[in-house]
Design brief:
alpha/beta; single chain; nine-stranded mixed β-sheet; elongated; 314 residues; two-stranded antiparallel ribbon
Length: 314
């Protein structure tokens, strides 16, 4: 029988509450790691991805020989690292003669592998190879535009899957509203063929357009690379249904004695109990009581005077 331990310290309890499932999830963290053998190009790619995701990524620089994402039993270490770092997306780099400069991008559900996409990196250009005005450099943590250009993202299954994974990897935290002045970067993904995508990172330059909405120009700041789709694995139907479940909207609790009207708005009823003023004890120095006493004294005095007059007359 398994023994369930409950946290005793407040710090541990708060950390577990952060990792607990929520109705509205925060931004997904990215785990970046590498295999036993990598190339200089691949190390540069992983470093550039970590730089772009700074603040929302965890980088492991040690070699991992037990990770084989597409093989059974080779996903245990990945799931352990995902649970340890609380990351729901991972980028795994490896290099071999059969698959040079290989990147595996995957998503997690409940710290288990959800889906995988394997791509090869070609024609890589780093940040240092681009010359531009440094004032246009995107700020760390800013929200990006993401553009997918080409019919392949709608017609080819491999590119459809790659589009979903790249969107989760690059978009950061989901927000409802955004300030236009804070947009300073864009990722442009162009489908060149049925298995090749050109990915580039651009800065946004805002210029006057004569209207409220400014005219935008793209300035390539890097990195840029070609992603060649090699393998991909979709989640099974049962896991997909489980992951796509949403919490039912909880009905609003009825508030007593409050109603709403289209004309008058919110109307509330206030119930005041009986005050029982007749039973209240009046103070001894009340003016009304003094007046009654004076009138009673006068009445007694007149009655006594009338009695004396009758006695004297008799």
């Amino acid at each position: 029988m398994m023994k369930i331990k409950t946290p005793k310290k407040g710090r541990v309890k708060r950390e577990l509450e952060k990792r607990a499932p929520k109705l509205v999830e925060t931004g997904k963290k990215t785990l970046i790691l590498q295999g036993t053998k990598t190339s200089g190009t691949l190390n540069a790619v992983l470093s550039e991805i970590y730089h772009l995701k700074k603040g929302g990524a965890v980088r492991f620089t040690r070699k991992n020989d037990n990770i084989r994402p597409f093989e059974s039993g080779g996903e245990t270490s990945l799931e352990f690292f995902s649970l340890k770092t609380d990351c729901s997306i991972f980028v795994y780099g490896s290099h071999s003669k059969k698959r040079p400069d290989n990147l595996v991008i995957g998503r997690m559900y409940d710290h288990h592998i959800y889906d995988l996409v394997e791509v090869g990196v070609e024609n890589f250009k780093s940040l240092e190879s681009f010359t531009y005005d440094k004032k246009l450099a995107p700020r760390v943590g800013s929200k990006p535009f993401i553009a997918f250009v080409g019919e392949g993202f709608e017609n080819v299954d491999e590119l459809k899957h790659l589009k979903e994974v790249l969107l989760d990897l690059l978009r950061g935290e989901v927000v409802e509203t955004i300030n236009l002045a804070g947009l300073d970067r864009a990722y442009v993904c162009t489908a060149i063929s049925s298995n090749r995508v050109y990915l580039t990172h651009c800065a946004l330059r805002l210029k006057k357009s004569g209207t409220v909405v400014p005219r935008m120009e793209l300035v390539e700041v890097g990195p840029s690379m070609d992603l060649v789709v090699r393998r991909h694995r979709l989640p099974n139907e049962g896991l997909r249904k489980e992951a796509m479940k949403t919490a039912k909207d909880q009905p609003k609790k009825k508030v007593k004695n409050v109603s709403s009207d289209a004309v008058e708005g919110t109307i509330g009823k206030i119930y005041i109990p009986d005050q029982k003023i007749g039973d209240m004890a009046l103070p001894n120095k009340a003016k009304g009581v003094k007046r009654e006493r004076r009138e009673a004294k006068k009445k007694d005095a007149t009655e006594r005077a009338s009695k004396k007059q009758k006695e004297e007359s008799e």
